[in-house]
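Appendix C reproduces, verbatim, an entry submitted by the partner laboratory led by Prof. M.T., so that reviewers can inspect both the input and the predicted structure.
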Amino acid sequence: MISENFIYSNAYLMFYPTIQAEILSSGQGNCSFSNAVAGPIIGGPFTLINTEDEIITEKNFLGNWVLLYFGYTSSPDVGPEQVNLMAKAIDILESKENLKILPVCVTIDPHRDTPVQLRSYLKEFDSRIVGLTGPDNAVRQMAQEYRVFFKKVEEEGGDYLVESSHNMYLMNPKMEVVRCFGIEYSAEELSKDISKEMKKIPS
């Protein structure tokens, strides 16, 4: 029997070269996702749960600039680095440019990342980071909408890791993706490019 993870990961890999080409063709981490006819190619509605067990949808974030990252609390290296990067970038934006952005972290490992676990993890980096989890099918649907690749990799003893892409998405106040950022960014570079996008739209 073919597993759901196998189907999902292979479906993603079919489209991954096209997605990466879109990213690379428009500059370092700059994603051109708009489609004048069909609307945004990446992104969409979602219903998840925050770390206070409250139901959250995309409508809760309307009116805010959002920096969105998909990760998981047991990530051994890149995940913590990216969450720390997010925290440092919003600090720079607020302290140096007086720009407000809402950091949001969606877990791709909802089986282990309960609201309590996610809250405890994110608090170690920055209490302003909004953590989202939920049923596996809801998380998977959102990941598909945002073209986020992830798959479970079984290890000895019944444990597992999660392989995933590590892009961050910058969402405008209409919850539309305007940029994506890869792991090559420093906090200074990330905050600088976010600032450029935010200043394109009058406050």
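The domain at 4-198 is CATH 3.40.30.10 (Glutaredoxin). Additional entries are available on request from the coordinating office.
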